[in-house]
Amino acid sequence: MAYWLFKSEPDAWSWDQQVAKGDAGEEWTGVRNYQARNNMRAMKLGDKGFFYHSNIGKEIVGIVEVSAECHPDSSTDDPRWECVDIRAIRPLPRAITLEEAKAEPRLADMALVKNTRLSVQPVTDAEWKVICELAGL
Fold it and tell me: One Pfam family name from the record (predicted)?
């Protein structure tokens, strides 16, 4: 299993909206960056991810799971763009802010810290464990 981080502006798509989709989950549409799209192409059913509120809050708020592997993005007719479906698994007991992640030496190489603009990014096993520890899991 691999780990990922999905960024969303909460005024466009929030954790609460993701949770409301239930077990069916939702397509992670609208990604128009090749590196982020390629990250989704690498995802497998059951991979876990962090749900991150960008711009407003700037914090990791929950855990999601890939519920459908990469397929054409229904929000465009352009065949270059694909997406996965994700479903909410659980909220974090305590949200982890970007500032906290940047201040944690064990996360110095995390994509969230080094490449804050990438909307879908990998998370290493070690980074996953640190975030879960900081969040109280």
Answer: EVE
